Each structure stands twice: as structure tokens, then as C-alpha cells.
Amino acid sequence: MEYSQKFGVHLIIELYGCDVGDLMSINKVYDILRVLPSSMGMNTITLPYVVKWLDKDTKLEGVSGFTMIAESHISIHTYPEKRGLFADVFSCRNFHIKRCLDKFMKTFKAVNYDKKVIKRGLNA
Q1: Is 77 tagged catalytic?
Q2: Which residue from 61, 99, 103, 122 has the fewest beta carbons nearer than 10 Å?
Q3: Does residue 18 carry a catalytic annotation?
Q4: How far is Cα 94 from Cα 97, in angstroms, rounded to an integer?
């Protein structure tokens, strides 16, 4: 479904039951940040920045990544021990929410998800 708004759409994704190896892969996170913008009609303005990190209460390294797009940004944080992922896709242009969510689900082999769609700038 496409959303129409004054300024932008902010898609908040929570994936559950993901493949642990995918959640620990810098390459998986980098690749989705590299290809997702153009597949959604967005324009990348920076290369993805992706790092591994180890939370003080975990034993498995997670991955966090970010890319700036002309329309705003996309960010990802993985939590391998919980088999979960959180992502934000914020764009001032319409994009296909379901196709974007499906790309995340397929890439990380998620079993389930929650999503929120926030229409930004309604009073702008």
C-alpha cells in the first residue's frame, strides 16, 4: 500500500525469528542498505556505514547500519541472541510499504514481524 502525506512516511519494522547467522552478518546488513533505496525509488547519498557491536549483556555480536538517502535515512540494528532486528525507513517520498517489508523478511528469513507506519509532517 502506498501512503500519501505532506512530508514523509516513517516505516518502523521489528522482525522476529530471524536467522542468527544473517543477523550477525555485516555483509547482509550492508547489502540491504545498498540495494533497498534504489529498489524503492529512493536516491542513496552515502555508502552504508555498518559496524559490529557487542552489548554488555550478550555473547553474540549484533550489527548496526545506516545509510543516508536524499529522501531521509534507513537504519538497522540486529539482535542475534533474540533472533530479532529493528529497522527504520524514513522517506519524504512515497514508497511501497509491503514490498519494503517483504525485502527485509526475505533477507533475514524472519518468521514474524510488527510494523508501524507514521505519516510525518502532517502539520508542516
Answers
A1: yes
A2: 122
A3: no
A4: 9
Q: 56: Cβ–Cβ under 8 A, 6 or more apart, which residues? A: none
Structural class in CATH, domain 8-116: alpha beta
Catalytic choice (10, 72, 91, 100): 72
Burial 99-119 (b: 16+ CB within 10 A, else e): ebbebbbebbebeebeeeeee
- How many Å apart are CA 39 and CA 49, to the nearest integer? 19
Catalytic residue among 64, 75, 92, 96: 92
> Which residue intervals of the chain are DSSP H helices?
20-23, 26-39, 97-107
Mark whether 73 is an active-site residue: no
Given the residues 64, 75, 77, 96, the one annotated as active site:
77
What is the end-to-end Cα distance of the chain in Å, rounded?
23
Summarised one tens digit per residue, pLDDT across range 61-110 is 999 999 999 999 999 999 999 999 999 999 988 899 999 999 999 999 99
The residues, any chain, with a CB within 8 Å of residue 20's CB and separated by 6 or more, are 60, 80, 83
